[in-house]
Design brief:
The protein has 117 residues and is mainly β. Helix content is 0%, strand content 55%. The strands form two sheets. Strands 2, 4, 5, 6, 9, 10 and 11 form a seven-stranded mixed β-sheet that branches.
């Protein structure tokens, strides 16, 4: 049984930084694609960044140059370094995993990020 557990959320002032992590346990597929999503109050869930083994990560335009996603394939741990945070980054952040990017099978329960102005 695959489980994803996020950590690292919190509250920060605009311009600050936070680092999120997501530990995946029980994952046995050979291929691994992982992503960070976020959902702000009253809005739909949107993809923030995606990473796959040996593939250049992709980012939403709104976070390019500010966020960095990394994947430790050996430990199945996903990270998101968030810099220059803005109030509009406030959301619940979720990690997702799948053998195939875009068809997300496994989800974490989320971690809250709040950015105050």
């Amino acid at each position: 049984q695959v489980q994803l557990v996020e950590s690292g959320g919190g509250s920060v002032q605009a311009g600050g930084s936070l680092a999120l992590s997501c530990a995946a346990s029980g994952y046995t597929y050979r291929r691994l694609c992982m992503a960070w999503f976020r959902q702000a109050p009253g809005k739909g869930r949107e993809v923030v960044a995606t990473v796959e083994n040996d593939v250049t990560p992709s980012y939403a335009d709104s976070v390019k140059g500010r966020f960095a996603i990394t994947l430790d394939s050996a430990s199945h741990t996903l990270y998101l370094q968030m810099n220059s945070l803005k109030p509009e980054d406030t959301a619940m952040y979720y990690c997702a995993a799948s053998p195939f990017c875009g068809t997300w099978i496994y989800w974490g329960h989320g971690t809250q990020v709040t950015v105050s102005s």
